[in-house]
Structure formats: structure tokens, C-alpha cells
Amino acid sequence: MRRILGKRVGARFRGFLPLLGITDANRNELEEWYEKDFLTSLDRHLKNHNFLFGGRPSIGDFGLIGPLYAHLYRDPYPDSLMRRDAPNVAAWVERMIQPTDYHGEWLEDDEIPETLTPVFARLFAEHWKVLTSTATALGQWAEENEGPEIPRNIGEHRFSIGGVEETRAILPGSIWKMQRPLDCYNSLSGNARQRADEFLRRVSGLPALQFPLPVRVTRINNKLNLDSELLSAGVSPTTGCTQD
Fold it and tell me: CATH: 3.30.930, 3.40.1000, 1.20.1050, 2.30.29. Which one for 2-111?
């Protein structure tokens, strides 16, 4: 009975894959990126560090734990794959979901280890482009439509991973999240901004964080809306960076 119900639920979620741009054409590239690139790099990094930036979890750790735990660690097959090929990542997941009192420190002088460079570089090279394309499409949608509420899907666009192009749905919900790192970066000044720029140049991410959002969005009753107050004021405020 569990197998029958599992197949029924699985078939429903499998139907979402084309909307996300996951097809037979790029399946190998997606799996290659996750298994051979992302997991390998992150496992190498976590061999020497309990968390991304030292001995205590950061906002980056909390950002990664969502997909790595909910979508991968809790699923039998990717869980076994993670434990087999990236045991340090699996151990990190367990530290994050079963917290104790961690009294560790950040790495000295806010160092970002070189072992994280491949992770950031690949994300900026391929994944961030989906966000900028989505933001641009949302700006065009805002010019052509009245009313603040934004549909969950506003069309399709092309993207590339591993050199293979595919089509996926344009999902404006990601812009609500994209605003956070952009706001953080724009709040920096002086030495903090200079150091951030130096790191971003190293991973080819400087143009990404300097991307001008054409519109801003907010969530009202769990529905995405154009932030009309900000639009009418013609401003793009920053919320700053959290210390952690």
C-alpha cells in the first residue's frame, strides 16, 4: 500500500519537473553538477570546518539547510548518495537539524576559505542568471499589467546548465528572496564594501550583486505583490546585512 501511494504522490510531483526546467535533455548535467561539483566541493570544505565560515552556523548555513535537508537528506536515495559520496555534508546536515550549544567562532578576519570558491563561482556562472532573467521579465510584466498581485508563473525563459539549454517557467517568487542579498550588498560601505567586491571579483560575482532590480516585491497573505509604495516613491531601500 505504501508503494502504491508513494508512486501516486511521486507522479504528482514529477509533473512539476518540466516547469522547473528539468527534462531528459539536461538531466545528466543537473546530476553531474550536484553530485560531482556541488557535493564534492562542499564535502571538501566541510572536512575542515564545522560550518561554512567557521565554528558556528551563519545565515548561509541556514539558507542551504532547507533544500539539502528537506529535499535531499530526507529522501532515501539522495540521502544514501550523500552519506556515501559526501559524508561531511551529511554530518553537517545532522549538526544543523540537531543543534547543541555551539560556541565556535567565525574564521579569523572574516576569511572566506578557498574551498568555497568553486561553489560560489558555479552559482554565479549559471544559477544567478535565472534570477536576473526572472527579474527582467517581471519588470516587463509590471509595465504591461495593472494591479499589484503577481501570478506564480509569468511565462517561460531559457536557461543553461553544463552547456545544455532548456526552458523553464518564470517564477517571480524567487525575486522576493533575491532582494535579500542585493539589499545586504547595497548596504555595505567603506572597507566592508571593498572586501566584498574583492571576493566577488574572485568568483565572478560582482556584476550579479550590482544588478539593478527593475521592481521590488512583497508578500501579503502569502501572495506575491508588487511593492507599490516603493514603486511610487521611486526608491529601492536596503534592509542591510544581519551580523550572522
Answer: 1.20.1050
Q: In the chain, where are the structural domains located?
A: 2-111, 117-233
Does position 235 have pLDDT exceeding 80, yes or no? Answer: no
Query: Cα separation of 125 and 135, whole Å?
Result: 17
Rounded Cα distance, 183 and 218, in Å:
14
29's grid cell: 548535467
pTM to 2 decimals? 0.85
Q: List strand residue ranges (DSSP E) for the chain, in order.
A: 156-161, 164-169, 217-220, 223-226
Q: What's phi and psi for 235, nearest 5 deg? A: -125, 160
pLDDT at residue 228, rounded to an integer: 66
Provide the 3-class DSSP secondary structure of residue 159: strand
Angle (deg, nearest 10), helices 173-187 and 128-144: 110
Over residues 136-163, mean pLDDT: 93
pLDDT at position 8 is: 83
DSSP per residue over 21-68, as a string? T--TTTHHHHHHIIIIIIHHHHHHHHTT-SBTTBSS--HHHHHHHIII
